[in-house]
């Protein structure tokens, strides 16, 4: 992706995070960049095209991180063997990396803020919010934990319940990160402690 196209996405997402998607016009995006609408249209057809590219970029970044931390980047149906062979330590490291991503990466943080604003406005935005931030991660963890239960790595407890117990503090700490901007390290320490206790409680001896 060219620097110009990337800069358009960054500027647009910043405005979406502050004002909501519907409240932002192409003129506002062009104005934030100091260019004309015509110049912007050379790179993207319309505001929806910009939004679609932002979502695509987010999924691309998520896939890259999953590969980096050796966890499945696809669904259980697509990558059964990878789910079966994922190490618990990789999940821990990936979770901590995801926390950093959602709280300190400006692009990801603005994406999360935008979806938080927009989630109740349209079914499409709500579905995207759920898939990226709430039900999607829970289902992902449920599938990973289910395979670990089968292999005797985790105790025989309902996998979805385990996923909720693991993810709830993660979600809460991310949600409070915007209020306590200078306390990210403390929040991450709390998350690390939670994960350690989770493993101690649920790992087979």
In brief, what are we looking at here?
The protein is an all-alpha fold and 205 residues long.
In round numbers, the mean pLDDT is 93
Helix-residue proportion: over 70%
What is the strand content? Answer: under 5%
Oligomer description: single chain
The H-and-E topology, N to C, reads as HHHHHHHHHHH
E-strand count: 0
Sum up the overall morphology in one term.
Answer: elongated
Through-space gap between termini: 48 Å
Estimated radius of gyration: 19 Å
**Major pleated sheet:** none
- In terms of per-residue confidence, which ranges show pLDDT below 50 for 5 or more consecutive residues? none
Structural class: mainly alpha
In DSSP terms (H or I, runs of 4 or more residues), the helix count works out at 11
Keywords:
elongated; mainly alpha; single chain; 11 helices; 205 residues
What does this structure look like?
With 205 residues, this protein is mostly helical. It has 11 helices and no strands. The longest helix has 22 residues, at 47-68. The radius of gyration is 19 Å and the shape is elongated. The termini are far apart. The mean pLDDT is 93.
Write the layout of secondary structure elements.
Layout: H1 3-19, H2 26-33, H3 37-41, H4 47-68, H5 80-84, H6 88-104, H7 106-118, H8 123-133, H9 135-150, H10 159-176, H11 184-202
Helix pairs in contact: 1-2, 1-4, 1-7, 6-7, 6-11, 7-8, 9-10, 10-11
């Amino acid at each position: 992706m060219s620097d110009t196209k990337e800069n358009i996405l960054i500027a647009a997402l910043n405005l979406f995070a502050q004002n909501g998607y519907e409240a932002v016009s192409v003129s506002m995006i062009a104005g934030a960049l100091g260019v004309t609408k015509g110049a912007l249209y050379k790179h993207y057809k319309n505001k929806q095209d910009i939004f679609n590219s932002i979502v695509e970029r987010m999924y691309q970044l998520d896939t890259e991180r999953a590969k980096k931390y050796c966890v499945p980047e696809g669904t259980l149906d697509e990558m059964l063997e990878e789910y079966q062979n994922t190490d618990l330590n990789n999940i821990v490291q990936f979770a901590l990396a995801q926390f950093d991503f959602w709280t300190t990466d400006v692009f990801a943080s603005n994406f999360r803020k935008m979806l938080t604003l927009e989630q109740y406005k349209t079914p499409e935005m709500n579905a995207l919010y759920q898939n990226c931030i709430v039900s999607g991660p829970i289902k992902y963890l449920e599938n990973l934990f289910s395979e670990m239960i089968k292999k005797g790595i985790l105790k025989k407890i309902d996998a979805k319940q385990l996923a909720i117990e693991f993810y709830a503090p993660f979600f809460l700490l991310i949600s409070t990160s915007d209020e306590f901007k200078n306390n990210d390290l403390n929040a991450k320490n709390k998350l690390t402690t939670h994960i350690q206790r989770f493993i101690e409680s649920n790992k087979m001896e």
